[in-house]
Amino acid sequence: MTTATRNRAGHEPAPVPAVAGYRSGFDTAQRWLALLGVVLCALQIGFAALGFWGAQAAGGGEDATRAAFAPHGELGTALGYLALLVLVTGLLARSGWKSWVIPLVLAVLLFAVQGMLVGLGFEVSRWFGFVHALSGTVITAGFVWLMLDRFRAPLR
């Protein structure tokens, strides 16, 4: 072994044990599910714009607005279930804290916070709609962060 592959003390590094096959499989699944989450978040932004312009075209009544945003809401629900699936794969892969903390935060935001902000936006103040959009940005960033982490440091 050459000195370039030795550590600072001059010793050969200890071999890294391979992880169990199922853990590597769940890590791979989480990686691709996080990428799917990123793609769906991009689509979600498009559905939000479609809902806005659809509500404007329909006259802006509450029922018409809710109907115009229906695809946005349905995809938000699907993203919540995707976050739960990503959480389960992260727990089973045991690839580090990010593999379960990020999906847990995403699931809480998608199932508890986003719906509440929509209701408050319609009933109380449109500023809650603004916070809803900011929360959506955090959700998108969470999927991106998890995807990049899993592609950069996959389990082997």
General description of the model:
Helix content is 77%, strand content 0%. With 156 residues, it is mostly helical. It has one domain (20-152). The longest helix has 37 residues, at 21-57. The radius of gyration is 21 Å and the shape is elongated. The two termini are 23 Å apart. The model has no long low-confidence stretch (mean pLDDT 89).
Count of spatially separate domains:
1
Please state the CA-atom Rg, rounded to the nearest Å.
Answer: 21 Å
Number of helices: 5
Helix content: over 70%
Secondary-structure element pattern, one letter each: HHHHH
* First-last Cα distance: 23 Å
Averaging pLDDT over every residue, what do you get?
89
Instruction: Categorize the overall geometry.
Output: elongated
Quick take:
The protein is mainly alpha-helical.
Helix and strand topology:
Layout: H1 21-57, H2 62-68, H3 70-93, H4 98-123, H5 127-152
List its salient traits.
mainly alpha, 156 residues
